[in-house]
Write a structure and sequence with these properties.
It is a single chain. By secondary structure, the chain is mainly alpha-helical. It has a domain of 68 residues: Orthogonal Bundle (Arc Repressor Mutant, subunit A). Helices cover 61% and strands 9% of the residues. It is built from five helices and three strands, in the order H-H-H-E-H-H-E-E. It has a three-stranded antiparallel sheet. About 7% of the residues have low confidence.
Length: 98
């Protein structure tokens, strides 16, 4: 844990908002990251583009996952299967409704 504290300290010295970003990253679940990515992208998109956006923005860390794309795809499909009206399926593409 000490190593992470040092990282937070160094990051906060480099950028005034870095500490807030790091704290937010620790709290975001994969499903929250998927929703945030769809919201940011604001367009119909493929699950691999969602994965890329999550990685680019550091919304979620997949650790040593061998198939993070499949994990994102499964999260998107969970929204559809569970009848969550926020995420809509357009074949192999997804989008966020308002």
């Amino acid at each position: 844990m000490k190593k992470l504290d040092n990282y937070n300290k160094c990051a906060s010295q480099q950028h005034p908002y870095a500490r807030t970003i790091i704290e937010n990253e620790k709290k975001m679940t994969l499903k929250e990251a998927v929703l945030k990515s769809l919201e940011d992208m604001n367009n119909i998109t493929h699950y691999l583009a969602v994965l890329s956006h999550i990685n680019d923005k550091n919304f979620y860390h997949f650790g040593g996952a061998k198939t993070p794309g499949s994990t994102v795809s499964a999260a998107l499909c969970d929204y559809i299967r569970n009848g969550d009206s926020r995420v809509q399926d357009g074949g192999t593409y997804y989008y966020l409704t308002n």
